[in-house]
Amino acid sequence: MTKTLYPNIEPNQLFHLTVSDSFDSVRHEIYVETCGNPDGVPVVFVHGGPGAGCGLDDRCFFNPEKYHIILFDQRGCGRSKPLGNIVENTTQHLVQDMEAIREHLNIDRWVVFGGSWGSTLSLVYAQTHRDKVLGLIVRGVFFGTPAENKWLWQEGLSRFNPEAYARYSGLVPEAKQHEILKHYYQMMTSGDDAARNLAAFEMMRWEEHGFTMQDNEIPEDMEAAMENDGWHQGMLEAHFCVHNCFIEDQPIADNLSVLEGMPVYIVNGRYDMLTPPAKAYQLHQALPDSHLAIVDRAGHASKEPDMVNALVSATDSMLQKLS
Question: The whole model's pTM is what?
Fold first, then answer.
């Protein structure tokens, strides 16, 4: 039987957790909410982007009667404060934030669930805090390598959307065509709000073209969102990708053995243009006891019907594995 999302539920609690390192630091306040059964299996939802934030239906991948569901918006994202701030905002900071949330909620160990960029952060967290992870579910696997970033922002995806790529690359001078993402990042950090908003809009518009196998039209409200603080997602995504996700000195692929013995479920769309299934397969090969589902009729989006079926099946199977 094909599985669908669980019904939407209201949070049990929501709050902001201050995670700044000192009084001289930027005061990052992380939005956190908990849902489902407080006595159930703890699971933390790690959103994508970087910069996307959590949506209401992200709670619905999990059985609310059996899971204690924790969601949070990463630094600079969604309902966290300050919006779009890139100061003291690296992968290592986000791993520390996850630990702060776990400790604040008095959770001993939890399942970690992440998609796209969320898979990157989930993998780094699990490698760093192996003893705090009950199990791992990742979708749209992305190791954050220079080659993957080149595929997204320079060449690779461009071969499938040449007309959209012409618009995206057209914002960059001829002399900078070999470093398009870097030029976009410079526009976003120039201090010119109009240049920042334009660059963020065009970057997100470009990525949207590779997002789904279904309706691939750009949302009509996208430009309006950019004019109303929607620029922050482009800013965060450029910030992390131009720095190769801040993990070049400790590549994910070099430390996969630490995850051996952990229940791991891997899900990837067969036709995922943003995070092709090669990395999902590489992860599975490194962890032979993991469960790999390549979803034939799916791209990158988490809410395509066959992808939902695979992800909910994974969260349900995780419960059985841990029981």
Answer: 0.95
